[in-house]
Specification:
Blueprint lengths: L4 H7 L6 E4 L3 E5 L9 E5 L11 H22 L3 E5 L15 E6 L19 H12 L1
């Protein structure tokens, strides 16, 4: 995997405003926040996208994310927030090391704005679900 700014932050070569750290996970304030308290949560294991992360590193993120979300909510004083995770440039990933954004939302104008161009599920849904089940086996 290519070197990223997050690799340097994990090694302590670039400073950060650390929020949380354990053996597998590091969380710190985003240097270009969308809202006050915007926090990044990263695995210490290098992986460019979520599907390339080991089960152990993913489990560690899964344990840490709810705790960090509670801390962000309490500290910022909001009840609403987004958790965002992008994979690959087409999905707006800019740093190619898995990372989750916790973005507090105090009101309709603050935080993340999200468009959701949904449409009804297609007739191929049963076949698609079956293919996915096979891929998971």
């Amino acid at each position: 995997m290519a070197e990223t700014i997050f690799s340097k932050i994990i090694r302590g070569e670039i400073p950060c405003h650390k929020v949380y750290e354990d053996e597998h996970v590091l969380a710190f304030l985003d240097v270009n926040p969308v809202s006050v308290g915007h926090t990044l949560v990263i695995p210490k294991e290098p992986a460019p996208t979520l599907d390339q992360l080991s089960d152990d590193a993913a489990a560690a993120l899964g344990r840490a994310l709810p705790r960090i979300c509670r801390a962000v909510k309490t500290t910022i004083g909001v009840s609403a927030y987004n958790v965002l995770q992008n994979n690959e440039p087409l999905a707006h990933q800019a740093v190619f090391h898995v990372h989750f954004h916790i973005i507090p939302k105090a009101d309709a104008e603050s935080g993340l704005g999200v468009g959701w161009p949904s449409r009804p599920v297609g007739d191929d849904a049963p076949e698609l679900a079956e293919k996915m089940r096979k891929a998971l086996a």
